[in-house]
Design brief:
Blueprint (H helix, E strand, L loop, with lengths): L1 H21 L18 E6 L2 E2 L3 E11 L9 E7 L7 E2 L1 E6 L5 E5 L6 E3 L6 E8 L5 E3 L4 E12 L15 E4 L1
Antiparallel strand pairs: 1-6, 2-5, 3-4, 3-11, 6-11, 7-10, 7-12, 8-9, 9-11
């Protein structure tokens, strides 16, 4: 009987201890939030234009730097740049988005862009941007971006106007 009493007391103590352990739980709450920012955008307002180019029987290139205004072209090989320049401009884009947000610029891969016209297609490659490291910042909400590239001209390229398109992408960092 004594042992039975001790066992009963022990069971009662364990039951009380177990109940008090469950009764001591605590909790806390947290706030959840999200901020939706202005989507990044890009628009083109000025085309990439190499201007007037003269060729002979030797292939060459025309480098057009990514600068505002009238960039200074550089010719190589059988290409010459006449005094009457025609329209010479780097492409101008405006990037818009959340103020003071960093973004990266995606330029076309080399050799992927062609322009077509009266003769053989010409390749536009080695694209560059006016922003260091192909990265920018939206500042007050927008930033201008200039894009230049190198035009490959075949020897005896046929006279005429050549056109094509290329894509520039921007993404928030």
């Amino acid at each position: 009987m004594k042992n039975m009493k001790k066992i009963f007391v022990l069971i009662a103590l364990f039951t009380v201890f177990a109940m008090s352990t469950f009764a001591q739980g605590t909790s806390a709450t947290a706030t959840s939030s999200a901020t939706i920012i202005t989507p990044i955008g890009i628009s083109n307002s000025v085309a990439l234009a190499y201007g007037n180019i003269a060729v002979n029987t030797t292939a060459g290139t025309v480098l057009l730097p990514a600068t505002s205004g009238t960039p200074t072209r550089v010719a190589t090989g059988g290409v010459t740049l006449p005094a009457v320049t025609g329209t010479v401009t780097a492409a101008k884009f405006t990037v818009t988005g959340q103020p003071n947000s960093a973004y990266s610029i995606g330029l076309p891969a080399n050799g992927t862009v062609t322009i077509t016209g009266a003769g053989s297609p010409m390749t536009v490659n080695t694209f560059t941007s006016s922003l260091s490291g192909n990265a920018g910042n939206t500042g007050t909400g927008s930033q201008d971006l200039y894009v230049g590239a190198t035009l490959g001209v075949a020897g005896s390229q046929s006279a005429g106007t050549y056109t094509g398109t290329f894509t520039v992408t921007v993404n928030y960092n």
